[in-house]
Amino acid sequence: MTELDVAQLQRRLAAFAAARDWEPYHTPKNLAAALSVEASELLEIFQWLTPEESARVMADPESAHRVRDEVADVLAYLLQFCAVLGVDPLAALAEKVERNELRFPPKRPADHGD
Questions:
Q1: What residues contact 42, with CB distance under 8 A and at least 6 apart?
Q2: pTM above 0.85, yes or no
Q3: Residue 32 in contact with residue 81, Cβ under 8 Å?
Q4: CA dist., res. 72 & res. 16, Å (int)
Q5: CA-CA distance, 92 to 18, in Å (whole number)?
């Protein structure tokens, strides 16, 4: 499998939507709503599982397939949302992690592997 990057995936998703004339529907509001729906579908897989069962969900091929599909849907809508609004998702995540590291200092020093 070839290595993919965020921009490449965003271009592919945009081309997919354009080929189907879906762009008028890909507004920030609609994409945020679709993202929420897909995240809820991911949650539904785990809804009634015990913590132990949820930790083993990827061991079952059928549930693992469902999880991967829903993760893909969530990521697809998130990447499309970011493209429409001009948000760099990796930069946004890096900034948020940095703020959280300052906001929530560790109880013990962490090895960042740098």
A1: 67, 70, 71, 73, 74
A2: yes
A3: yes
A4: 15
A5: 26
Give the model's pLDDT for residue 109.
Answer: 72
Does 101 reside within a domain?
no
For the chain, what's the residue count? 114
Q: DSSP label at 57?
A: G
Two structure tokens written together for 68: 């991967």
pLDDT band at residue 4, thresholds of 50, 70 and 90? confident
Domain span including residue 36: 6-95
Q: Which residue is associated with the tokens 């913590």?
A: 51
**The tokens of 85 are what?**
């609004």
Reading the block at residue 87, the tokens are 């948000």
Q: pLDDT-derived band of residue 112, with 50, 70 and 90 as boundaries?
A: low
As for how many domains the chain has, the answer is 1
